[in-house]
Amino acid sequence: MRFKAERAAYEAQILQYKQKFEELETKISYMTTEQERITELYNEKKKEVESLRSKPAQPVDLLTNTKELESLRREVETLKREKFVRG
User: Fold this and answer.
1) What does the radius of gyration of the chain's CA atoms come to, in whole angstroms?
2) For the chain, first and last CA: distance in Å?
3) Could you tell me which of 61, 40, 59, 43 has the C-alpha nearest to residue 51?
4) Over the range 51-64, which residues count as b (16 or more CB within 10 Å of their CB) and which as e?
5) Taking the CB of residue 79, how many other CB atoms lie within 10 A of it?
6) What are the helix (H) ranges across the chain?
7) Farthest-apart Cα atoms in the chain, separation
8) What is the pLDDT of residues 8-47, one digit of tens each?
9) Are 79 and 85 a contacting pair, CB within 8 Å?
């Protein structure tokens, strides 16, 4: 009797180990796939950054920015007069 009980206990333990092994294999597979996806994303972003670095800096169009700024100032002043904005 004792032998059968010990054998059953060992078989149960072996089954648990097999299940844990399968879980870990699944986890490894998922993590490998995820690592590959992240590596690919990193490489894409790295290329994008390198591309941006290789382009000459674009000069800022100060005239356009000044006009936009004046337009926004006029709009704020109009809203202040109409009491929509407290200033």
Assistant:
1) 34
2) 92
3) 43
4) eeeeeeeeeeeeee
5) 13
6) 2-54, 62-81
7) 98
8) 999 999 999 999 999 999 999 999 999 999 999 999 999 9
9) yes
The tokens describing 68, both together, are 């936009």
- C-alpha–C-alpha distance, residues 17 and 11, integer Å: 10
**CB 69 within 8 Å of CB 60:** no
Identity of the amino acid at 75: E
Residue with tokens 């926004």: 72
Question: Which conformational region is residue 56 in: left (phi greater than 0), alpha (psi within -120 to 50 degrees), or beta?
Answer: beta
pTM as predicted: 0.52
